[in-house]
Design goal:
Oligomer: heterodimer
CATH class of chain A: Alpha Beta
Number of helices of chain A: 7
Number of domains of chain A: 1
Low-confidence stretches of chain A: none
CATH architecture of chain A: 3-Layer(aba) Sandwich
Helix content of chain B: 40-55%
Number of strands of chain A: 10
Largest interface: A-B, 34 and 31 residues
Strand content of chain B: 15-25%
Strand order of the largest sheet of chain A: 6-7-8-3-9-10
Mean pLDDT of chain B: 80
CATH superfamily of chain A: P-loop containing nucleotide triphosphate hydrolases
Order of helices and strands of chain A: EEEHEEHEHHHEHEHEE
Mean pLDDT of chain A: 87
Shape of chain B: elongated
Distance between the termini of chain B: 32 Å
Strand order of the largest sheet of chain B: 2-3-9-6-8-7
Largest sheet of chain A: 6 strands, mixed
CATH topology of chain A: Rossmann fold
Number of domains of chain B: 4
Structural class of chain A: alpha/beta
Distance between the termini of chain A: 16 Å
């Protein structure tokens, strides 16, 4: 379970301090899906980065499975990410020097799990890319790249999956397909899905929605 | 989290995808340039030493008044040195009709130990030997052969025994230096000395030990011997047999050492630029790895080991390549180098390996550390570029590794300190100059318009990148110019063909009453000579304030005028009065410095029981390689003219006048005449070889420099190509972009060229003064060629590197971003 208590984030800018997030409170049950929505600059991505342990809050707490992220040092956070979390990004972030297969194998290998290749092949097969295993990201279309990214995100069987605008870079048809695939895998793996999106339709597919406006939580 | 096998896998994948190509290419250039220059220099150095070893007949020659103590000899065997001894003494060789005082060398086994003795045999054939005459036989040099008027097989008496003439010595190594060698030479077997009964108690004898072995062993023994033997023993090594050779070799070694360093710094520049590019390309990778749960340490480990693997592979490849290139160089120069150059040792390979790795660590680690610092949040916020390391830390790291490599390469702490110290000063001054030049260039640029203005404006827009590029290009060109400058001045110094009338003969043993007629003879035949100098062999007693003592006899001279080949550096040559009222004398500067002798010091001399004194009133420098009579001590008046002296001079006799030698010998039968032509030829040959080696090394450094410049330009192209692509999609014409790029690179090239020129002169000043001991003056060509080189090479390289983006459609470029 993810519990967020009075979460706030302030950054220093040239014009003084800027409060990006104020007093955010919510809980997300295991195995559900949540969409974080709001207009540009409302603090969606910042919230996601705090939930995923990529950034540190200035006030409040994020507690995941009884562990408070703010109390962890960099190495503990890294371990937390390795064991609990998977990511999907708007710009895919595949490693250009690795093939599709190798991109999916990487997180499995990093965890030291054997048979990374077989597992990665199985996942790429699930996302319908078994004919693209040895292609480099450059040689794949946007939709294909995001499907590789989805396979990679599920590769370590994370408890929570964070997705930042997963369809933002795709045309609507491809976006729909990718979203469908994402929810399918989410359901079959029983993963908690936290998704940042502009896309109202995609947001509605999620079980819950958190709407942000100018750093404030509007609804849960 | 990141296991070895994973690191290897990542490395293999990066390798296969071609991501590492540029880094590996730069490193390969670096390591192969450094190692080939180092292999080549090492072998040339060995060859040069070998040649000069031949000149003295051994790698090390030790002389003393008695036989060596058994433990000293035992030490030679223990240190793996081969040795041979000979006994030197002067004695009369005679036949029934003639006699001649001769310098006799009695040889126990091998002579010479290095090089050969050229012998003409009875059947007029010439052979090269390195052995001893058979018992009962002797070899004579041609002078003695003529003087005694003997033929092969005739008997010559030495002491109480008779010996058969078995060969004429046509050439012998190491005739030069000691006075004994002015006498004609006779070589006999050491076993015959006792039979001849020539050595009596009190005879002036000199034992010579010739030693040969590896450089390290010889150096070690030489140092050990110096600590254990007293002042009556002297040693001459291959490096210090002849002043002219000694200085040539020292400068050549410094040059080769400097060239190695130069290529290394060039390589370092390339590595640093390419590693930075590698790091920037991998920021996203690092961020993703952090998202997957890698700690900072894991990321550093992955990329660090990656880099180490690259270093290892390229060092081995580069070392091999360097070895190949050096073989090629040696092959190209095979007519000019001694035939059997010893191969470089396996240690050279270790040096290559260590060099590659250290250069990589030193120059690439700062970039690597940036990679480790990538925040995982970068996956969401692309603008989160890790900060560069703290400036001083980066520089310290680079400097330490550079110093380490330099020390490995040169083993010369002075050179390293100088180059690095100078480098730091130059870099600081550079920074300031670069800023100034850039401002000036930009101001001038404002007067332009259109695409040229845009190009120049680009330099300003990316001002921090521009400054780094100007610094890197400038530094690379500085090194190229500097090596070229050194080469020019060294060669000019070496190839100063000895003046046409440099003396090629010495004549000694002239009696005072003969000097006038001899001068008359020289004038009559228009023979140029160095002036006649008296020589008074004296024991020397230094004042108490002086350091050390002089146990051997020294030749003291007197002259009313300062000899033309001497330069007065301090004091007065012939003051009217001295403090003590004793006669004034002038000392050779180094001789005085080494013994802490000062103005007003009184030195006591003793020649055959007659004591005389003088007061130091001036210091002189002396051209030891002028082939003219030179003295440590010259009295500047005729106060000691009554003391028994023999006179000497040197003179130049062209080939066609050689028959006059016979007249001289007839008129001055007691005099001894020495021909120097052969020695001078030998010296010239050594200098020629060294010059050619320097030329080749220069060529190689220039090639390495060009490659590094091209690689550096290439690695700076990412952002330019990105912007060009965007501009093209916005509708910019190819010609507009082309002219913008050309003007941008022209400005950067011009600035770096100017900086290179300024830096070259500045660095050269220090190097000339402290390392090469050459006179320094500003060089117009450096100021012209720096900017021209910068303008042409950098602009051309930049234009070439941007061609691809200009050629292909913007769409294709966009996809590649």
């Amino acid at each position: 379970m993810i519990t967020v208590e009075k979460l706030g984030k302030i950054v220093n800018t040239h014009d003084g301090q800027l409060e990006i997030l104020k007093n955010i409170d919510f809980t997300i049950e295991n195995g559900t899906s949540v969409a974080i929505t709001g207009e540009s600059g409302s603090g969606k991505s910042t919230l996601l980065s705090l939930l995923a342990g990529l950034d540190r809050s200035t006030s409040g707490k994020v507690i995941i499975d009884q562990q408070e992220l703010g109390a962890m040092d960099e190495d503990q956070l890294a371990k937390f990410r390795a064991n609990k979390v998977g990511f999907i990004f708007q710009s895919f972030h595949l490693l250009g020097s690795l093939t599709a297969l190798e991109n999916v194998m990487l997180p499995i290998e990093l965890k030291g799990i054997k048979d990374a290749k077989a597992e990665a092949q199985r996942l790429l097969d699930q996302v319908g890319l078994n004919h693209r295993l040895s292609h480099y990201p450059k040689q794949l279309s946007g939709g294909e790249q995001q499907r590789v990214a989805i396979a990679r995100a599920f590769a370590t069987k994370p408890a929570i999956l964070f997705a930042d605008e997963p369809t933002g870079n795709l045309d609507s048809k491809t976006g729909n397909n990718v979203a469908e695939l994402l929810f399918e895998l989410n359901a079959s793996h029983g993963t908690t899905l936290v998704l940042v999106t502009h896309d109202e339709k995609l947001a509605q597919t999620c079980a819950n929605q958190i709407v942000l406006s100018a750093g404030m939580q509007v609804t849960e | 989290m990141a296991s070895w096998s994973l690191v290897y896998k990542l490395f293999a994948r990066d390798w296969r995808s071609g991501e590492l190509k540029v880094l590996i290419a730069a490193l390969l250039v670096a390591v192969s340039a450094v190692s080939s220059i180092s292999f080549f220099s090492q072998r040339v150095e060995i060859a040069m030493l070998e040649e000069s070893s031949r000149f003295i007949g051994a790698d090390l020659r030790i002389s003393g008044p008695r036989e060596m103590a058994p433990e000293w000899l035992a030490k030679t065997t223990q240190m793996n040195l081969s040795s041979a001894k000979s006994l030197m003494f002067a004695s009369v060789a005679s036949t029934e009709l003639a006699f001649q005082l001769s310098s006799i060398r009695a040889v126990d086994s091998k002579y010479p130990l290095k090089g050969t003795l050229t012998l003409t045999l009875a059947d007029q054939t010439t052979i090269e030997v390195n052995t001893k005459p058979a018992e009962g036989e002797i070899w004579l040099d041609s002078r003695l052969y003529d003087k005694l008027d003997v033929s092969f097989g005739d008997l010559v008496e030495v002491g109480v025994a008779e010996f058969k003439v078995a060969g004429i010595i046509a050439a012998e190594p190491g005739r030069g230096g000691s006075l004994l060698s002015f006498l004609p030479r006779l070589v006999m077997n050491l076993a015959d000395v006792e039979r001849a009964k020539v050595i009596q108690p009190g005879s002036r004898i000199n034992w010579q030990y010739h030693l040969a072995g590896t450089r390290t062993d010889i150096d070690a023994y030489s140092a050990w011997f110096k600590d254990n033997a007293n002042e009556t023993w002297s040693q001459i090594g291959a490096k210090n047999g002849v002043p002219r050779i000694e200085r040539t070799l020292q400068r050549a070694e410094s040059f080769l050492g400097f060239a190695s360093l130069a290529s290394l710094i060039l390589a370092g520049i390339a590595i640093a630029m390419v590693a930075n590019r590698y790091a920037e390309h991998h920021f996203d990778h690092a961020a993703i790895l952090r998202c997957f749960g890698c700690t900072q340490k894991d990321v550093m480990k992955i990329y660090g080991l990656n880099l180490l693997l690259i270093g290892f592979v390229t060092s081995i490849l580069g070392g091999g390549l360097g070895f190949g290139i050096h073989l090629l160089l040696v092959e190209l120069m095979k007519d000019l180098l001694p035939t059997n150059l010893p191969m470089p040792g396996i240690s050279s390979f270790y040096v290559a390996l260590a060099t590659g790795l250290t250069a990589l660590v030193g120059f690439a680690l700062p970039a690597l550390i940036r990679l480790g610092k990538v925040a995982p949040l970068r996956v969401l916020r692309k603008d989160l570029t890790p900060m560069s390391m703290r400036g001083y830390l980066t520089y310290a790291l680079t400097l330490v590794s550079l110093a380490l490599i330099m020390w490995w390469q040169t083993q010369d702490v002075m050179l390293v300190a100088n180059v690095l110290g100078g480098g730091i000063v130059v870099a600081l001054i550079f920074g300031i100059i670069a800023q100034g030049f850039l401002k000036l260039g930009l101001r001038l640029g404002r007067m332009t318009s259109g695409s040229i203005y845009f190009g120049i404006k680009q330099v300003e827009r990316h001002s921090s990148a521009s400054r780094i590029q100007i610094l890197a290009f400038g530094l690379a060109m500085l090194i190229m110019l500097l090596v070229m400058l050194l080469r020019n001045d060294l060669l000019a110094t070496w190839q100063q063909k000895l003046d046409k009338d440099t003396p090629n003969h010495f004549i000694v043993n002239i009696e005072a009453y003969e000097t006038e007629t001899l001068e008359g003879f020289f004038d009559q035949h228009q023979i140029k000579h160095a002036g006649l100098f008296p020589m008074i062999r004296s024991r020397v007693k230094l004042p108490e304030s002086a350091e050390g003592e002089i146990s051997r006899e020294v030749n003291i001279s007197w002259a009313l005028d300062l000899p033309s080949h001497n330069t007065l550096v301090d004091g007065e040559w012939a003051p009217k009065n001295t403090q003590s009222g004793l006669p004034a004398m002038s000392l050779e500067e180094e001789f005085a410095k080494g013994r802490n002798l000062k103005f007003g010091d009184i030195i006591e001399f003793n020649t055959g029981g007659q004591v005389y004194k003088g007061e130091v009133t001036s210091f002189r420098t002396v051209k030891w390689d002028s082939f003219k009579p030179n003295f440590f001590v010259i009295f500047t008046s005729d106060a000691i003219k009554e003391l028994p002296a023999e006179w000497m001079t040197s003179f130049y006799l062209p080939k066609h006048q050689k028959p006059l030698l016979k007249d001289i010998l007839e008129q001055y039968p007691a005099a001894t005449l020495v021909e120097l032509d052969a020695i001078m030829e030998q010296i010239q040959r050594i200098i020629d070889q060294v010059s050619i080696a320097v030329e080749f090394v220069l060529l190689f450094v220039m090639m390495a420099g060009l490659m590094v410049l091209l690689a550096a330009v290439q690695s700076s192209m990412d952002i330019r190509n990105f912007e060009s692509t965007i501009l093209r999609t916005l509708g910019a014409q190819k010609s507009y972009l082309r002219s913008a790029i050309v003007s941008e690179f022209s400005l950067i090239g011009l600035m770096s060229g100017l900086m290179a020129s300024a830096g070259t002169e500045l660095t050269a000043f220090g190097l000339y003064k402290y390392i090469f001991e050459l006179p320094f003056e500003l060089h117009l060509w450096v100021w012209i060629s720096g900017p021209i080189m910068g303008l042409t090479v950098i602009t051309f390289a930049g234009y070439q590197a941007s061609k691809r983006v200009l050629k292909q459609s913007p769409m294709v470029s966009l996809r590649q971003l």
